[in-house]
Amino acid sequence: MSRPDPSDPAFDPIVGKVGRVTGRVAGGTVGEVMLPVRGGAEAFYAYPADESESMEPGTRVVVLDYEPPRTVTVTRLTY
Questions:
Q1: Band of residue 7 on the pLDDT scale cut at 50, 70, 90
Q2: pTM, whole model, 2 decimals?
Q3: What is the CATH number of domain 18-76?
C-alpha cells in the first residue's frame, strides 16, 4: 500500500489515530469513521481489521492501516 510522504508539510499521520464510528463498520460493508486531521475532524471510509467484527456508531476505534486518500482499516479501541 502506498503511504503519504512524511517530508510533505501537509503530512498528518493517520495510522494510530483514535476516532469514532459514524456509519456501521462491519465485514462486507464500507463504514465511516471521523478522525482528527489537521486541527479538525474528517470522515474516512472504514473497514474492520477483523471481518467478523461489527462496530456500531459511537464506537471508539484506532486506525491500523491507511490507504490514501480516504480509506482506513480500524479495530475497536480497548482500554
A1: low
A2: 0.83
A3: 2.40.50.140
Smallest CA-to-CA distance from 4 within 77, 75, 79, 65 is with 65
For 24, phi and psi rounded to 5 degrees? -35, 130
pLDDT tens for each residue of 13-26: 999 999 999 999 99
Nearest to 66 by CA among 11, 9, 27: 11
Residue 67 DSSP SS3: strand
Domain boundaries, the chain: 18-76
Give per-residue burial for 28-55: e unless 16+ CB within 10 Å, then b.
eeebbbbbeeeeeeeebebbbbeeeebb
Q: Strand, helix or coil at 44? A: strand
